[in-house]
Amino acid sequence: MIKVITDSTSYLEKQTVKDLDIEILSLKVEFQQDTYREVELENKAFYRMMEERGIPKSSQPAVGEFIEAFESVVKEGNQVLGVFLSGKMSGTLSTAVMAKDMVVKDHPDAVIELMDSESNCMQLGFAAEAAAKAAKEGRSLQEVIQAVEDMKKRSRFLFVPDSLKYLKAGGRIGKANALIGGLLSIIPILTVENGETSIYKKVRRKKKAVNEMIEKLRAEHREHTVKEIIIHHIDAFKEAEALAKRIQKEVEAPTRIMDIGPVIGLHVGPGAIGIAYYTEKELRD
User: Fold this and answer.
1) Any idea of the CA torsion for 205, 169, 48, 261, to the nearest 10 degrees?
2) Across the chain, what does the average pLDDT equal?
3) Which of 51, 104, 233, 234 meets the CB 3.0–4.6 Å disulfide criterion with 240?
4) How far does Cα 268 stand from its chain's mean position?
């Protein structure tokens, strides 16, 4: 059997995790002396806490958590496929690699493959889902790995922050760093490419930014056939609901609303809204 392991920034729904037998390793948020596992925090309560206590830090799971997860699988004679958030955004993947080396030293026959999703949120979630579905179908490890690679070529994540303050404070702005400075009234539409946050387009108003996201989605539906859409939001459910209703009129594909949790939320900030989707045909080489 192949066990798929991912991290909490995939924000996969609990039922999906259960149905596909995916294991989630939780990242953490740290407010001075207080540390919380992301999966144990209620999102609305967290954003209220952030208002009161300032922007916390985030951290990856401890190496021991990876070791425990990997060992529990390999001791049963099964294989591990780990799919984690971008290595350019977090040390999660490098910690997983360290843990793998330690487990393989004690269990020389262990088969543990680790992959960089080169993204986060449901773009990571789509990759983990694709792996778990392929594993459940009884495909080989190489075929499961290929399912992840294929999904990476067929998915996109676009989002609009309410403010760049959080991205700047968290140091996760990637290639979008050029925006910091004389932004004034410019609203960026951000995306994730090659594992980094980058600029898709700059506009003057948030309403215009949302319209541009929808237009990009429509264009890619015409050319590549969109198969599923996730409306992501950070403490902005009403905006997400309105966006979902608009998209359902424009694109015939299953559409769900999913909120973004504390670890990505603290870097992007409340009020952000975005879309993650995947297509039938490849979007990139």
Assistant:
1) 80
2) 93
3) 233
4) 12
Q: List, in sequence order, every residue forming a beta bridge with 269; answer none if it has no partner.
A: none
| 83, 117 Cβ separation under 8 angstroms | yes
Q: For residue 137, give every residue at least 6 positions away whose Cβ sits within 8 Å of its Cβ, in sequence order, or none.
A: none
pLDDT for res 184: 54
pLDDT in tens, 189-240: 999 999 998 889 988 889 999 999 999 999 999 999 999 999 999 999 999 9
How far apart, in Å, are the Cα atoms of 116 and each of 14, 111, 196, 254, 282? 22, 17, 12, 26, 18
Backbone angles phi, psi at 33, to 5 degrees: -85, -10
d(CA 223, CA 241): 26
Local structure of residue 271 (DSSP, 8 states): T
From its phi and psi, is residue 250 left (phi > 0), alpha (psi between -120 and 50) or beta?
Answer: alpha
Q: What is the pLDDT of residue 181?
A: 45
Do residues 118 and 151 lie in contact, with contact meaning Cβ atoms separated by under 8 Å? no
In 3D, which of 62, 192, 46, 217 has the Cα closest to residue 120?
192
Structure tokens at 105: 């030293």
CA distance 285 to 277: 17
Cα distance between residue 206 and residue 162, in whole Å = 8
Say how many residues make up the chain.
285
**pLDDT confidence of residue 284:** 84
- Counting residues of the chain whose pLDDT is more than 90, the rounded percentage is 86
